[in-house]
Structure formats: structure tokens, C-alpha cells
Amino acid sequence: GAVVSQHPSWVICKSGTSVKIECRSLDFQATTMFWYRQFPKQSLMLMATSNEGSKATYEQGVEKDKFLINHASLTLSTLTVTSAHPEDSSFYICSAKGTPFEQFFGPGTRLTVL
Amino acid sequence: AQKVTQAQTEISVVEKEDVTLDCVYETRDTTYYLFWYKQPPSGELVFLIRRNSFDEQNEISGRYSWNFQKSTSSFNFTITASQVVDSAVYFCALTLGDSGAGSYQLTFGKGTKLSVIP
After folding, report:
1. Which is nearest to B113 in space by CA: B8, B15, B4?
2. By a Cβ cutoff of 8 Å, what residues of chain A touch chain B?
3. Do A105 and B44 touch (CB under 8 A)?
4. Which one of A22, A98, B48, B99 has the lowest number of neighbouring Cβ atoms within 10 Å?
5. Is the confidence at residue B102, as pLDDT, over 80?
């Protein structure tokens, strides 16, 4: 089956620093990837849709300058949380578009900002 | 806009009991896909099932079964003879079956936390 990896699986950083999270499709090419955010005991909230070679489409209320998304290749999308603050602490999950009408999810990255 | 409602926030059952997780959806589209995912404490989403809007056949996979009823816009999930390993948060989700800009975007319910007590 299709496998999606995320790196790192967890990260702790100081307030004001930037953190990059990688999402890779290991055995297939993904023209579209999605980034979700999940707060404790809550559901997944779509942050943005990332298309290879073009700008990401952000959901309403998501700051594009704070959450930079780059999808430079068919197997890699990155999410950079810039100038992270404690309120950015969350579980970030990526997924890659499969067929038909299916998404393959990564294992998630737990970000803690001190 | 699409909406998925999982009215049960938390459910506790004793091991070997049967349990049904409810999912009600809203969409104006006639072509759509429904999903169930399991999220154990580790956090990784585990795909359980996908069902398209034109296939109302119920499905059984081992101890898991799904009841899709378009008349009530429901896609309920039953675990038979529950086990401790079934303890997790379960999400129901929907995506539209078109190829437009919003295609493949999943709308998730809020999830139901299932605790199976030994």
C-alpha cells in the first residue's frame, strides 16, 4: 500500500524559532498533499492543500506567512512554522492524494513550542 | 458545504460487548465518498473503510461492520465483541466525488473516543 512518512515525528523548540516538517510519499508520486492540524481531543482541521509546482491553497483563517508550505517535488512537501509560539503547539498531520478519492496519511508530527 | 456529525463524544464498553459508532453526514452532492479512520494513542490515522454514495451495501470485515443508509444520511460503524485494542478515537469523514478544486478534501467529524475496558 501507499506509504507516507513525516519527519520529525516530534520536535520541541523555543519560542521564536522556525520549524520545518517534511512529508514524503515513499512509493508513489503525489501531485497533491494536504496539511492538517489537530489540537488535543479535537478533530483534524485542514490547513492547506499543497500542489506540486504551485502555491499552496490555504484554508480560511490560516496564516500563510506563518505556515509556509513548499511542494517542490512529487514526493515531498514541507511545512515550515515560522517564528513559532506556544499556541502553535499541536499535532500536524500530512496526507497525500491517492486514487480514487482517497488520502494516505502520514504518522504525524507533534510540535511543542516552549 | 459538507458536514459530518459524530454525536457520541466518548463511549465506554466492557470487553466483548458490541458497540456502534454513529455518523451522520450532510451534503448536497449526489456523488461522494464516506470514510472511517481509527486513531490510536500513537496518533497515526488508520484507514478502515471507504464507501461511495452509489453503493449502499453494508460491509463486514471481521469484527467490523458498516451500515450505510442514504435515506437517513448515516454511515454507522459497529464493532462486534470489542477488544481492548479497539480503544481509540474513530473519525468519520466525507469527500466529494468530483474532480473540482475541492476534490479529495476530507471533511472530518469530531471523532468518538472509544474505551474498551477489560
Report:
1. B8
2. 32, 34, 41-44, 46, 49, 57, 91, 93, 97, 101-108, 110
3. yes
4. B99
5. no
